[in-house]
């Protein structure tokens, strides 16, 4: 991985601190504010942020509070009703506090304007880092420029927008496409002619999740061309998806499969299918993301046959906190962290649950 360096002195306010991934061709070494925009996406940077000096963690002297913290970290997550994102936010606090971080978690509940206001409040209150999953990429890119110019690190979680300092990014359509590929192997095993009626659980409000949904369609066309998508339902969590799934099954009682862009859609599909008497060995549910409920269902072979894990909230948060500590201490770090891509099925669910931090309640 190529490397990029950025020094931010305690008394210097940087302009245009970081760049949007892929805009560049820097030559390494120390980067000035004027030349930062010439650096490439996946480079490593060096940052010193106000408040980072000193070796004594506040956590070492007791509970971390806003007043005694070594660093203040704001976390704004688009939708905390999604279990994996709530797990992620809480795990940032779990891993951050021992490092001396005070972690404040908020959510705009999908409202981009509210999220911008949250960002501004964090800056006004002297936060060192803001971790954000953006409700709107365009407006967040504009806000990130203002925030980084104030010397605050902006970490993008999942959603690519301009002017982030570092990020854990999902490539468009890839996870949906690979989830469909995993589901297609099951289709071709269960249905030799490949004819299978599929309900897709998708998203129509968050751009990246819309791309993931599109990836499901494209993956099915490529790997199971005889499969037929008979319905698409939309939501963001299990509660939203459940009544829609029930309606979809009522209209399509001969559906054989559900492919969901998220864990909530898969869990809702399982509940709806069982409640309507559709459960059988020839009925399968697959999803992107894996959480405790999905892992438990896979372990019990309870309609959910597989999930494409992106690491889980705990796994992701640990990697992010490790990166933030490096940034705040002025060490080298990876500007872009890649999501892991791990197929979880009945054969490996316990192994992966142990590695990724899922709880398989039935296995206890």
TrEMBL record:
Keywords: Signal. One of its GO terms (molecular function) is carbohydrate binding. Residues 29-54 are annotated as: Disordered. GO terms for cellular component: cell envelope. It holds the Pfam family Peripla_BP_4. InterPro entries: Peripla_BP_I (IPR028082), SBP_2_dom (IPR025997). It comes from the Bacteria. Belongs to the bacterial solute-binding protein 2 family. This is Periplasmic binding protein domain-containing protein. The keyword Transit peptide does not apply. It is found in: Cell envelope. Its main location: other. It comes from Hungatella hathewayi WAL-18680.
């Amino acid at each position: 991985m190529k490397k990029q360096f950025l020094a931010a002195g305690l008394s210097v306010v940087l302009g245009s601190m970081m760049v949007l991934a892929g805009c560049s061709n820097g030559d390494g070494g120390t980067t000035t504010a004027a030349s930062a925009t010439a650096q490439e996406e996946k480079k490593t940077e060096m940052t010193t942020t106000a408040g980072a000096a000193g070796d004594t963690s506040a956590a070492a002297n007791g509970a971390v509070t806003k007043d005694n913290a070594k660093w203040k970290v704001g976390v704004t997550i688009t939708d905390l009703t999604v279990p994996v994102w709530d797990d992620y936010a809480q795990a940032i606090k779990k891993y951050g506090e021992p490092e001396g971080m005070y972690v404040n978690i908020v959510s705009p509940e999908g409202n981009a304007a509210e999220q911008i206001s949250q960002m501004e409040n964090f800056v006004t209150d002297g936060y060192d880092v803001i971790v954000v999953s953006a409700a709107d990429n365009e407006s967040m890119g504009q806000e990130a420029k203002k925030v980084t110019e104030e010397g605050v690190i902006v970490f993008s979680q999942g959603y690519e927008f301009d002017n982030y300092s570092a990020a854990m990014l999902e490539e468009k359509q890839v996870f949906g496409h690979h989830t469909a590929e995993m589901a297609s192997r099951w289709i071709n095993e269960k249905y030799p002619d490949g004819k299978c009626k599929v309900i897709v659980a998708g998203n129509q409000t968050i751009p990246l999740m819309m791309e993931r949904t599109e990836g499901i369609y494209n993956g099915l066309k490529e790997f199971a061309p005889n499969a037929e998508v008979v319905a698409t339902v939309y939501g963001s969590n299990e509660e939203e998806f459940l009544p829609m799934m029930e309606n979809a099954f009522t209209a399509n009682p001969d559906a054989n499969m559900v492919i969901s862009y998220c864990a909530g859609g898969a869990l809702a599909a399982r509940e709806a299918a069982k409640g309507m008497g559709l459960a059988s060995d020839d009925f399968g549910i697959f999803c992107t993301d894996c959480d405790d409920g999905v892992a438990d269902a896979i372990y019990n072979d309870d309609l959910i046959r597989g999930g494409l894990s992106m690491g889980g909230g705990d796994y992701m948060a640990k990697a992010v906190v490790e990166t933030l500590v490096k940034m705040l201490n002025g060490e080298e770090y990876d500007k872009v962290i890649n999501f892991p891509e791990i197929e979880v099925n009945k054969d490996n669910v316990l192994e992966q649950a142990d590695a990724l931090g899922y709880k398989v309640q039935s296995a206890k």
